[in-house]
Amino acid sequence: MIESASGAAANWAGNLTYGAREVLTPRTLDEARELVASAEKIKALGSRHSFNDVADSPGGVQLDLSGVSGSPSLDTRAATVTVGGSVRYGDLVAQLDEAGFALENLASLPHITVAGSVATGTHGSGERHPGLAAAVSALEVLTADGSLLTLTRGDADFAGVVVGVGALGAVTRLTLDLVPSFTVRQDVYDNLPWSAALTHFDEIQAAGYSVSLFTNWARDVVDQVWLKNRGPVEVPASLFGAVPADGPRHPAHAAGVPAGNTTAQLGAPGPWYDRLPHFRLGFTPSVGAELQTEYFVPRAAAPAALEALRGVGHRIAPLLLVSEIRTIAADDLWLSPSSARDSVAIHFTWLPRQPEVEALLPTLESTLAPFAPRPHWGKLFHGEALDLAYPRLADFRALAARLDPTGKFRNPFLDRHVFGS
Ligand SMILES: Cc1cc2nc3c(=O)[nH]c(=O)nc-3n(C[C@H](O)[C@H](O)[C@H](O)COP(=O)(O)OP(=O)(O)OC[C@H]3O[C@@H](n4cnc5c(N)ncnc54)[C@H](O)[C@@H]3O)c2cc1C
C-alpha cells in the first residue's frame, strides 16, 4: 500500500511550503515504478534540507523512497557500500566504521539523505577532497517511463546523472567508495586577522584534512578557524595570529550561539564520522531558525573574492548568523558546483529574514560576478549574475530531454536555473 501524506509539506527550515499536492511513500520498488510511470509531475524528496524550491513539484507529487531503501550492503573486497537513496549519512556511518571503513568526507551535518545530498552537489571541506558526489561509483535511477537505469563510473552518461539536481529521475540506489576507517582531532582557533587569512590562505588550507573559516565580515578578524586532522598529530600552538579556543565553539559563537550541538573539539580524537561533521546527529544542526546561501568561485580567486565581499560586509553582517569558507577539489561531474575547477565555497547562514536576504542576494552576486560564481543548488540564490556556464550544461539538457521527454521531473526551479526557460 502506498502511503500518502496529503496537504502542504514544508522544508526543514520552514521557509517553504511545497506546492506539491501530496507526498507518496511506496512500499515496493514496483509500486514506485508504477507511480513514476503514471505521474504527470513528480519529484524525489530527500530529508527536505534544501532552502529553495529545488525539491518541489507544484501541482504534482513528491516521492519519498524511504519505504524501498532497504539495508546498506557492504562489499569489503571492493571497499564500497551500496545504499538506498533515502538513507541518511548519519544512519550509515557507525556501521561502516565498525567494519573498518569510512567515507572520505562528510558535510557539516549527518541528517541529510545520500541521494538528496549528491543531487545538489553537497560538500564538506578540505582542498584535496571533492564534493560528496565524487564518492559515487554507481547508481540506479528510476526514470520517467518507470524503468530502472543502472550506470557505473566510466559509462557515457554517468558524470551527467550523478549531480542530477532531481531532473533526471529518482535515484533508488547508490554505491559509494570507501576508505579505511580513521580518527580525527578537531581544533578551533579564535581571531585570525583578516590580513593573515588572505596572505596565508594557501598555508591555512593546507593545515588540516578539512579546514573551515567562520566570519561575520564585520570585524578585522576571522572569528574562528576549524582544523580537522587525521590521526594523532601535533597541531600548531598558534595559527598566523589565531589562538586556540579556550572552550568548545559553535560556528556562530560570535552571534552568541552556544556549542551544545557541535561535535567534540579541543583536540579530542574520535571517529571520522563524529568529527568531520560540525553538528551531531541527535540534535538540531546549525541554528535551526535560519536560511542559507552559498557560492563557489575558483580556488585561485579566493583572496580577491573574499576581499570584494568584505567591501559589502557592512550590508551582510546585519542579516547574518555566520559565514563559512571552505575549499573543495574539482570533480568531473557535469552540474557539480566544483565541476572542472578547484573551488572555494563561501557560505552564509542568514537570520530567518527572507525578504531582506533576497533583496541582498543580487548585490552579493554582482560583487562576486568577476569571479564566475556558481550557486549551491540547495540554497537561496538570485541567479542572474551567476556563472551557469558549466562545461557540460548543453549535454545535461540533452540528457534530460532523452530520459524525461515530457518533463515530469522538471519544476519551476529547474526551468529558471538549469533549462533557462
Ligand atoms: C543545517 C544545514 C546544514 C547544511 N550543511 C551543508 C554542508 O555542509 N555542505 C553542503 O554542501 N550543503 C549543506 N547543506 C545543504 C544540503 O546538503 C542540501 O540542501 C541537500 O540537498 C539536502 O539533502 P536532502 O536529502 O535534504 O535533499 P532535499 O532537500 O529533500 O532535495 C534536494 C534535491 O535532491 C533531489 N533528490 C532527493 N532525493 C532524491 C532521489 N532519491 N533521487 C533523485 N533526486 C533526489 C530533490 O528532488 C531535490 O532536487 C546544509 C543544509 C542544512 C539545512
TrEMBL record:
The keyword Transcription does not apply. Keywords: Oxidoreductase. PANTHER family: D-ARABINONO-1,4-LACTONE OXIDASE, L-GULONOLACTONE OXIDASE. It comes from the Bacteria. It comes from Amycolatopsis carbonis. One of its GO terms (cellular component) is membrane. Residues 16-181 form the FAD-binding PCMH-type domain. This is FAD-binding protein. The keyword Oxidoreductase applies. One of its GO terms (molecular function) is L-gulono-1,4-lactone dehydrogenase activity.
